[in-house]
Amino acid sequence: MRSSPPTTAPTHLTSLQHTPTGVQADRSPVDGLVLRPIAPQEALRFLPLFSRYLGESDPQTVSDAIKKSKRALNRADHDAFWLLHAGREIGFAVVLHLPEGQHELSDFTIFPEHRRHGYGQRAARHLFARFPGRWRMGVSSTSLAAAAFWGTCLSSLANVENVATGAPFTSRQSKSFSFCVKPGIT
């Protein structure tokens, strides 16, 4: 069963629609970008895209793609979203909710053919607004573009504060970011 949205989430500040059983897709996206939860039944669609992402961001873990994708789609402490623009999948994001109340951006990608159009920053803004509070993320050592993107993106979002760069969480990361997302600003 998918995790329920936090009761403190500012439902009026994002276009996500909250229900007693979880979150549904955006109904009226302001900028054409929609976050839609990935259902466990979509595993066959998600797996090849997740595998391609792992091949780019963490090539040593591609063999674990099935296990990692099942975890992202089925565990209550994970939320996985399709990133849609004009009804088309342009990427995905996976958020891990840590026991101490912090969120971790575990996986995030805009598919290569859709990059450099501003979708990543808009998707990050929507995603962070969905889960205000403390965040962390590791940055893959195989992607210099990801490190540059996140440094710029985090510093430009109005609802993100206290951005700190830290040591990587794993040997396959170049660094990490920690930050706080203020509720009420998108």
Features:
33% strand, two-stranded antiparallel sheet, 9 strands, seven-stranded mixed sheet, single chain
List the helices and strands and how they pair.
Elements: E1 17-19, E2 22-24, E3 33-37, H1 43-57, H2 65-74, E4 78-85, E5 88-97, E6 103-110, H3 119-130, E7 133-140, H4 144-156, E8 160-166, E9 173-181
Helix pairs in contact: 1-2
Describe this structure in words.
By secondary structure, the chain is of the alpha+beta class. Helix content is 27%, strand content 33%. The chain contains 4 helices and 9 strands; from the N terminus they run βββααβββαβαββ. Strands 3-4-5-6-7-9-8 form a 7-stranded mixed beta sheet, sandwiched between helices. α1 (43-57) packs across α2. The longest helix is centred in the N-terminal third of the chain and has 15 residues, at 43-57.
Number of helices: 4
* Helix/strand/pairing category: alpha+beta
- Count the E strands: 9
- Could you give a short account of the major beta sheet? 7 strands, mixed
Strand order of the largest sheet: 3-4-5-6-7-9-8
Shape designation: globular
Average pLDDT? 82
Oligomer designation: single chain
Topology pattern, helix = H, strand = E: EEEHHEEEHEHEE
Ranges where pLDDT stays below 50 over 5 or more residues in a row are 1-23
> How helix-rich are the residues, as a percent range?
25-40%
Q: End-to-end span in angstroms?
A: 28 Å
| Percentage of residues in strands | 25-35%
Rg calc = 15 Å
